[in-house]
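Quick one, C-alpha cells below. Sequence please?
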C-alpha cells in the first residue's frame, strides 16, 4: 500500500469515525449528513487541522453541518451539466472543449461541492461510460481541449489515469488535456515521482489545482506542486470564495502570493455555486468585488485571478470586475486607480468618421454605446 492510500484508509470515512474524533458532534446529524453526501477526511488533512488548532477555515470545508440538510435553496445540478451531457459523464458546454467525468472519489469531500448529486457515488461512472466519451470526442473535431474532472481524477491509481490520458492523446484533434484536481492541497502524497514520470510523455497536460486558504500551502503541498512543475505540467489554481473560510483580502493575498512562489498561477476565484444545502458558504457578489478591488495593485498582477460566476443553468463563466471608470466623455476616460487617485486618459480615433467615436465624443457622451452601462457621463 502506498503512503497516500494508507492516509486515506487511516482517515475518517464515515459519520461514526467522525464522531469518535469529535464527540461533541451531534451523532444523528452527522449520520444524516453522511447519508446524503459522504463524509471523508483523510489522515493528512486531519493532522493538518489538529496542527493548526482546528481553525474554522479548515474545519468548515469538511465538517458535517445541519444546514446541509435544512437549506433547500438552490439546485441539485446548479450548472445544468446533465442537460449539456451528450453522453453520460461528458459535458459539452463550450464550443471547443468538454468536461470529462472520470472519477467519483475525492481525497476528502468538500461540503460545498457542486456535484453532490454524483460525487462519492460509485454508480455514477462505468467503463462503458468512458468508451462512449472517447467515441464522442473522436467524432467531434471541434473539441481541442478536454478537462478531466470528477470527483478527483488523481484519486485513480496510476494505470487507469495514464490509460485515460493515453486514449485522449491518441485522438489527433485533442490538443490540450487538463486535470482538475485538489490532490496537491488535500493529499499531496498522491503526487508521486512515478505518476509524474508516467504522465510526462503525454504533455501538454495542464494541472488545474484547488487551494482555498494559505494554511493549505504546507511543505508537503508545495513539494507536490514543485514535483508537477518540474515534470513540465503548467499549474493553474482555482479557488472558491467561501464565507468564513477565505472571504477577506488578507487570506487570499497570502494564498495567491504563496502559490506564485510554488510556480502555480492563480486562475479563477469562483463565486460559490447555488448548490442545494451549501447556501451557508455563499458570500455576496459585492463582497467578492470588494476583495478583488483590495487585491488589485497591492499584489502582483500575475497573482490576481479572474473572479467569475459560473452562471446557473449552464451559462458558463462570467467575469465580475470592479468598476474603475469614473467618467467617460469628451474624448477621455476618467479613471480611479488602486490607491483611489483619479487619472485622465485621452482617447484617439484612428478613423475620425467612426460613428462610435463620434457618439462618444459628441454632446451626449457615450450614452447608448454598448458595454458602457453604469458609467456616469454627466
Amino acid at each position: 500500500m502506498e503512503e497516500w492510500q494508507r492516509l486515506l484508509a487511516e482517515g475518517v470515512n464515515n459519520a461514526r469515525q467522525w464522531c469518535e474524533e469529535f464527540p461533541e458532534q451531534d451523532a444523528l446529524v452527522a449520520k444524516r449528513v453522511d447519508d446524503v453526501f459522504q463524509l471523508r477526511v483523510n489522515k493528512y488533512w486531519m493532522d493538518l487541522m489538529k496542527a493548526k488548532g482546528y481553525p474554522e477555515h479548515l474545519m468548515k470545508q469538511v465538517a458535517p453541518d445541519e444546514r446541509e440538510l435544512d437549506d433547500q435553496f438552490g439546485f441539485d445540478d446548479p450548472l445544468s451539466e446533465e442537460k449539456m451531457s451528450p453522453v453520460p459523464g461528458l459535458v459539452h458546454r463550450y464550443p471547443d472543449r468538454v468536461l470529462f467525468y472520470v472519477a467519483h472519489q475525492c481525497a476528502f469531500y468538500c461540503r460545498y461541492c457542486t456535484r453532490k448529486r454524483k460525487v462519492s457515488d460509485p454508480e455514477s461512472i462505468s467503463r462503458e461510460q468512458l468508451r462512449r466519451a472517447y467515441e464522442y470526442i473522436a467524432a467531434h473535431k471541434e473539441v481541442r481541449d478536454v478537462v478531466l474532472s470528477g470527483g478527483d481524477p488523481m484519486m485513480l491509481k496510476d494505470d487507469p489515469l495514464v490509460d485515460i490520458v493515453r486514449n485522449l492523446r491518441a485522438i489527433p484533434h485533442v490538443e490540450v488535456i487538463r486535470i482538475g484536481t485538489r490532490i496537491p492541497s488535500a493529499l499531496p502524497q498522491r503526487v508521486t515521482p512515478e505518476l509524474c514520470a508516467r504522465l510526462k510523455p503525454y504533455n501538454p497536460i495542464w494541472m488545474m489545482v484547488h487551494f482555498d486558504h494559505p494554511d493549505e500551502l504546507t511543505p508537503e503541498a508545495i513539494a507536490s506542486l514543485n514535483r508537477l512543475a518540474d515534470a513540465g505540467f503548467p499549474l493553474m489554481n482555482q479557488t472558491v470564495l467561501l464565507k468564513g473560510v477565505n472571504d477577506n483580502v488578507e487570506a487570499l493575498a497570502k494564498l495567491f502570493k504563496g502559490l506564485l512562489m510554488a510556480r502555480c498561477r492563480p486562475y479563477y476565484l469562483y463565486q460559490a455555486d447555488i448548490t442545494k444545502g451549501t447556501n451557508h458558504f455563499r458570500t455576496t457578489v459585492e463582497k467578492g468585488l470588494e476583495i478583488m478591488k483590495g487585491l488589485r495593485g497591492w499584489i502582483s498582477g500575475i497573482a490576481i485571478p479572474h473572479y467569475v460566476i459560473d452562471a446557473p443553468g449552464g451559462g458558463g463563466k462570467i467575469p465580475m470586475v470592479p468598476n474603475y471608470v469614473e467618467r467617460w466623455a469628451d474624448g477621455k476616460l476618467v479613471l480611479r486607480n488602486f490607491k483611489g487617485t483619479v487619472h485622465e486618459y485621452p482617447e484617439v480615433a484612428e478613423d475620425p468618421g467612426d460613428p462610435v467615436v463620434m457618439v462618444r465624443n459628441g454632446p451626449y457622451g457615450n450614452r447608448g454605446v454598448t458595454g458602457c452601462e453604469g458609467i456616469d457621463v454627466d
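The two ends are 70 Å apart (CA to CA). Residues 127-139 form the longest helix (13 residues).
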